[in-house]
Amino acid sequence: MLRLLLTLCLLASSVIYAKPAQIAIIIDDIGYRKSDIQALYLPGNISYAILPHTPYGKRLALKANANKNDVILHIPMEAKNGKKLGPGALTSTMNETSIRNNLSNAFAEIPFALGINNHMGSKLTELYQPMAWTMNFLRERNLMFIDSMTSGASQAEQVALDFGVPSLHRHIFLDNKLEHSYIQSQFNQLMRDAKRYHSVVAIAHPHPETITSLLKLLPLLKKNNIELVPISALLMNKIIEDKQQLNADD
User: Fold this and answer.
1) pLDDT digits over 40-71, tens only?
2) Closest CA to 120 of 139, 157, 95, 147
3) What pTM, to 2 d.p., does this model score?
4) Which residues partner with 64 through β-bridges?
């Protein structure tokens, strides 16, 4: 009997060990350029963050959704550098009604979006109250929040947790420099992080240089036993793991 139990334990351990690490890649900033459509031809479970009220945003969101890719809204939020935010933005001077109206209008345009992440937002995500209004809106609609982590002092993910909004945060940007050598280096770091932490979120953008690099790099995931999953699947797995951990602690 003891030998049988030991054998079963070893088998269970091998199954856990063999389970692929998982990553989600979100392509941000979709909507202003006609060429953004090239990002939709990337293979696999890429997720797309669409800027609201942009010339091509709704059209590309519909195409991504038809292709069964995850779509979220890339909501402009106030940055410390004062950069122009674009339509539908959330700022620190807005009250709850204004924030809710802008979010409502964005989802009216793309109602199948699964949630939001922040475009810029280094100032707004550091402020509890506007993020609380944002999370309350998302909670009421069973939507997710992905913190792009444009500020190391961001409170956004913690506020999401406070309000019971399913949430993850970005671990790595892939294309801060539009050079293949840099993107490849970031992608290699992404794979190392995935193996170490088991699940990782990466963000990239629909630049031609990024698309060209990712077409070369994405096949490396399977060779490294890493699974590319939609952001919703990565989030669901986190929720399940957190519940299992709570049950184990009881």
Assistant:
1) 999 999 999 999 999 999 999 999 999 999 99
2) 147
3) 0.91
4) none
Sign of CA dihedral 210, 223, 19, 45: positive
Q: Give the integer Cα–Cα distance in Å for 71 and 53.
A: 15
184-241 pLDDT per residue, tens: 999 999 999 999 999 999 999 999 999 999 999 999 999 999 999 999 999 999 888 8
The CA-based dihedral angle spanning residues 193, 195, 196, 200, taken in that order and rounded to the nearest 10 degrees: 50
Rounded distance between C-alpha atoms, residue 59 and residue 78, angstroms: 26
Q: What is the 3-state secondary structure (H, E, C) of the chain?
A: CHHHHHHHHHHHHHHHHHCCEEEEEEEEEECCCHHHHHHHHCCCCCEEEECCCCCCHHHHHHHHHHCCCCEEEEEEECCCCCCCCCCCCECCCCCHHHHHHHHHHHHHHCCCCCEEEEEECCCHHHCHHHHHHHHHHHHHCCCEEEECCCCCCCCHHHHHHHCCCCEEECCEECCCCCCHHHHHHHHHHHHHHHHHHCEEEEEECCCHHHHHHHHHHCHHHHHCCEEECCHHHHHHHHHHHHHHHHHHHC
Count of Cβ atoms closer than 10 Å to residue 21 Cβ: 18
Q: Do 141 and 167 contact (CB within 8 A), yes or no? A: no
